[in-house]
Amino acid sequence: MNHILYVKNAAQVVTMKGSKEPRAGQSMKDLGLIEHGSVVVKDGIIAFVGTDQEAMDYLKNDKKEDIKTIDASGKLVTPGLIDPHTHLVYAGSRENELEMRLKGATYIEIHKQGGGILSTMAETRKASEETLFDQSAERLDKFIKHGVTTVEAKSGYGLNVKDELKQLHVAKQLNERHPVDVVSTFMGAHAVPVEFKEDPEGYIDLLIKELLPRVAKDKLAEFCDVFCEDGVFTLEQSERILNAGIEYGLKPKIHADEIEAFGGAELAAKLEAVSADHLLKASDQGIQDMANKKVIATLLPGTAFFLMTTPARARRMIDSGMAVALATDCNPGSSPTESLLLVMNLACLTMGMTPEEVITACTINAAHAIDKADTIGSLEVGKQADLVLFDAKNYQILQYNYGVNLVQTVIKKGQVLVQ
Ligand code: NIG
Ligand code: FE
């Protein structure tokens, strides 16, 4: 059995090396590029990264039969892509809402009429753990085909004790049984369920007093997230829930300023959240506050595209010194896609992010946004061997030849998954 994998002589290797901190502002442009580069993997871990000349020297004492070689000439090699914001585990689909929106209804109107998140909640409550597992595993298969080797996954379609725990168990099972790594976020505060319509404070009590302790005790999530928006959870409620999460060891994330300038960005800064996500309507002050407190902006241009609205001000954020990550927001209502590649195209073409910034946002900055930069997000010796080979002679092609899946080979923990 060959236990050495030799990815040989790529036209370009994007290493993202030396990124212990998230790459903010100007430093998002530095890809740590190697021309004619090679990567050597031993037992699932990166053992060498450098030019092919150096690689041949590095391997000169290894036996030929121990080495499996992948010829990467003319190709681009990057770290496995990371999606730091998804609602992966859900049942059903909501294509009917696209039609409603095309006729003029807004996302929040549909939500307030009991559709939207609440209709997926009903489907998710009805589904068995097996059904949820199977439907979500199919989504992960699509993610891999688009070069994604790690995803974050939020709960928030159960909205009661039993079904929130069910969703989180499914995410845990997926992490254990599917090749893609799944990092869990508890998002019981995704919406107020119908049974608490007249008593939202009662629901928040349930989240804080019953659910959070269970989630923490069973180690079912690393992060806590809240949909902080007019008509969903107020600033004060969001702060209370996220602070309760912090007490139980869950790091804060926040769906902020997606539909209104609601003060979510300012709250993210105040709580020093790991990331603030969406941020379509984030204020100038909010952006400055987040930059000062080193909050990562996780932007979701696919959601803006699918909701037919103006995307976040990525340029202002990066030029203010923020670190930006990108994600699909994969969910049945506002972004039904597993194509992080299309999201990358949209980031470039609708938000003015450069091809370098886009790659940084989907590799090392995305790793930081889920607090996993010590093991993934760059091609450096000692890190997990998650790599993608693209049928592209340079990294710019990924944004130029848009809407096309250029993924040729995906390697996860040294295993070749898609070829
Ligand atoms: O991130 N904004 C809130 N939550 C999701 C949408 C969930 C849904 O519509 O089912 C989002 O866009
Ligand atoms: Fe989301």
Automatic annotation (TrEMBL):
<dbReference type="GO" id="GO:0019557">
    <property type="term" value="P:L-histidine catabolic process to glutamate and formate"/>
</dbReference>
<keyword id="KW-0479">Metal-binding</keyword>
<dbReference type="InterPro" id="IPR011059">
    <property type="entry name" value="Metal-dep_hydrolase_composite"/>
</dbReference>
<feature type="binding site">
    <location>
        <position position="258"/>
    </location>
    <ligand>
        <name>4-imidazolone-5-propanoate</name>
    </ligand>
</feature>
<feature type="binding site">
    <location>
        <position position="87"/>
    </location>
    <ligand>
        <name>Fe(3+)</name>
    </ligand>
</feature>
<keyword id="KW-0369">Histidine metabolism</keyword>
<feature type="binding site">
    <location>
        <position position="334"/>
    </location>
    <ligand>
        <name>4-imidazolone-5-propanoate</name>
    </ligand>
</feature>
<keyword id="KW-0408">Iron</keyword>
<dbReference type="Pfam" id="PF01979">
    <property type="entry name" value="Amidohydro_1"/>
</dbReference>
<feature type="binding site">
    <location>
        <position position="157"/>
    </location>
    <ligand>
        <name>4-imidazolone-5-propanoate</name>
    </ligand>
</feature>
<dbReference type="InterPro" id="IPR005920">
    <property type="entry name" value="HutI"/>
</dbReference>
<feature type="binding site">
    <location>
        <position position="190"/>
    </location>
    <ligand>
        <name>4-imidazolone-5-propanoate</name>
    </ligand>
</feature>
<comment type="function">
    <text>Catalyzes the hydrolytic cleavage of the carbon-nitrogen bond in imidazolone-5-propanoate to yield N-formimidoyl-L-glutamate. It is the third step in the universal histidine degradation pathway.</text>
</comment>
<protein>
    <recommendedName>
        <fullName>Imidazolonepropionase</fullName>
        <ecNumber>3.5.2.7</ecNumber>
    </recommendedName>
</protein>
<dbReference type="GO" id="GO:0019556">
    <property type="term" value="P:L-histidine catabolic process to glutamate and formamide"/>
</dbReference>
<dbReference type="GO" id="GO:0008270">
    <property type="term" value="F:zinc ion binding"/>
</dbReference>
<keyword id="KW-0963">Cytoplasm</keyword>
<feature type="binding site">
    <location>
        <position position="329"/>
    </location>
    <ligand>
        <name>Fe(3+)</name>
    </ligand>
</feature>
<feature type="binding site">
    <location>
        <position position="255"/>
    </location>
    <ligand>
        <name>Fe(3+)</name>
    </ligand>
</feature>
<feature type="binding site">
    <location>
        <position position="94"/>
    </location>
    <ligand>
        <name>4-imidazolone-5-propanoate</name>
    </ligand>
</feature>
<feature type="binding site">
    <location>
        <position position="331"/>
    </location>
    <ligand>
        <name>N-formimidoyl-L-glutamate</name>
    </ligand>
</feature>
<feature type="binding site">
    <location>
        <position position="85"/>
    </location>
    <ligand>
        <name>Zn(2+)</name>
    </ligand>
</feature>
<dbReference type="GO" id="GO:0050480">
    <property type="term" value="F:imidazolonepropionase activity"/>
</dbReference>
<comment type="similarity">
    <text>Belongs to the metallo-dependent hydrolases superfamily. HutI family.</text>
</comment>
<keyword id="KW-0378">Hydrolase</keyword>
<feature type="binding site">
    <location>
        <position position="87"/>
    </location>
    <ligand>
        <name>Zn(2+)</name>
    </ligand>
</feature>
<dbReference type="GO" id="GO:0005737">
    <property type="term" value="C:cytoplasm"/>
</dbReference>
<feature type="binding site">
    <location>
        <position position="157"/>
    </location>
    <ligand>
        <name>N-formimidoyl-L-glutamate</name>
    </ligand>
</feature>
<comment type="pathway">
    <text>Amino-acid degradation; L-histidine degradation into L-glutamate; N-formimidoyl-L-glutamate from L-histidine: step 3/3.</text>
</comment>
<keyword id="KW-0862">Zinc</keyword>
<feature type="binding site">
    <location>
        <position position="333"/>
    </location>
    <ligand>
        <name>N-formimidoyl-L-glutamate</name>
    </ligand>
</feature>
<dbReference type="GO" id="GO:0005506">
    <property type="term" value="F:iron ion binding"/>
</dbReference>
<feature type="domain" description="Amidohydrolase-related">
    <location>
        <begin position="76"/>
        <end position="416"/>
    </location>
</feature>
<dbReference type="InterPro" id="IPR006680">
    <property type="entry name" value="Amidohydro-rel"/>
</dbReference>
<feature type="binding site">
    <location>
        <position position="255"/>
    </location>
    <ligand>
        <name>Zn(2+)</name>
    </ligand>
</feature>
<feature type="binding site">
    <location>
        <position position="329"/>
    </location>
    <ligand>
        <name>Zn(2+)</name>
    </ligand>
</feature>
<dbReference type="InterPro" id="IPR032466">
    <property type="entry name" value="Metal_Hydrolase"/>
</dbReference>
<feature type="binding site">
    <location>
        <position position="85"/>
    </location>
    <ligand>
        <name>Fe(3+)</name>
    </ligand>
</feature>
